[in-house]
Amino acid sequence: MTSVASLHDRLDLAGLDDLLSEEERAIRDAVRELCARRIDPFVADWFERGEIDDPRGLTRELGAMGLLGMHLTGYGCAGMSAVDYGLACLELEASDSGVRSLVSVQGSLAMYAIWRWGTEEQKIEWLPRMATGEAIGCFGLTEPDHGSDPGNMRTNARRDGDDWVLNGAKMWITNGAIADVAVVWAQTDEGIRGFAVPTDTPGFSAPVIKHKMSLRASVTSELVLDNVRLPGDAVFPDVRGLKGPLSCLNEARFGIVWGSLGAARSALESAITYAEQREQFGRPIGGFQLTQQKLAEMYLEYSKGFLLAHHLGRRKDAHTLRPEQVSLGKLNNVRAALDICRTARTILGANGISLEFPVIRHMNNLESVLTYEGTVEMHTLVIGQALTGLPAFR
């Protein structure tokens, strides 16, 4: 049987570890150890049941390790690099996309929105508690009828004296039912604006979405706002239009560029181990040429995806990363990861659909990751516009 260490060594066939500093490898290894202890033994059961045991406890453990808003500075945030954050996302998603989504939504959407666009009072109120996991956030942008076209959202906020009153609904909201604060984007007479909405505000509710076949180890909710009255200082003061929410989405997409590789690596590890142990026609199937071709091609795509993620991470740390480059990474790496999982499933045969192995779980999860934070179509058109200078969205 292949030991984990030797398998990890062989998965560094391309020498990718040489691209990382000693500190970066230490952060990666620490997150990997946390996942092996706290998530991996339980996640298949969470997925099968469609719920995480004690999500608040898990969130506090992630916060204690500095993983929530880890790439932000101040207010109790760890202030780590973009590559550090990317490596953490990779390890979290090697356990499960739903767990990585919890961290991404908390740090790159809810916390980033408050950190980048909120008032000083909002930052002081929420960010330290969110960094430790004592408070959980969600991000309300997508609506039942408006996903890729958020500019036509129907959720609205109107002034009423010194207050704001919000009405509308958001859909497919990670962390919604367990959140303490919801970042909600709404139409106003001044354009689209963002609000920090305490979830105990009268009129706010977050029904859990059931019957998912993907991201089952993740809390997914609808947000309903029925005459939710907020004080005037609940609004983000200095941003209007789609600039606000899109800046947050760009942060989350960067995490997906890395995270999707974790699911791919987990599936590849399973395929290699299975191919060494499974015998047909008198020998391990890993000794057959067609199986080795599959493994080699899977590794090629994984290593190319890692090189792209690493390059984009270094650009982000140098403050030279552009949104279309994030689209490039998200489109390529999620699509490649899904293909790797599908190929791994063929190596495992019928066992590939069993939750005794992680492959079908990753494969199902990636079907959602392929779509959220920008569909294949939208990222394709972002790249197309960057190449031609011609917008093709309408």
UniProtKB/TrEMBL annotation:
Keywords: FAD, Flavoprotein, Oxidoreductase, Transit peptide. InterPro entries: Acyl-CoA_Oxase/DH_mid-dom (IPR006091), Acyl-CoA_Oxase/DH_mid-dom_sf (IPR046373), AcylCo_DH-like_C (IPR036250), AcylCo_DH/oxidase_C (IPR009075), AcylCoA_DH/ox_N (IPR013786), AcylCoA_DH/ox_N_sf (IPR037069), AcylCoA_DH/oxidase_NM_dom_sf (IPR009100), Glutaryl-CoA_DH_mitochondrial (IPR052033). Its EC number is 1.3.99.7. Its cofactor is FAD. GO terms for molecular function: fatty-acyl-CoA binding; flavin adenine dinucleotide binding; glutaryl-CoA dehydrogenase activity. Residues 240-387 form the Acyl-CoA dehydrogenase/oxidase C-terminal domain. Residues 21-134 form the Acyl-CoA dehydrogenase/oxidase N-terminal domain. The keyword ATP-binding does not apply. PANTHER family: GLUTARYL-COA DEHYDROGENASE, MITOCHONDRIAL. Belongs to the acyl-CoA dehydrogenase family. This is Glutaryl-CoA dehydrogenase, mitochondrial. It comes from Nostocoides jenkinsii Ben 74.
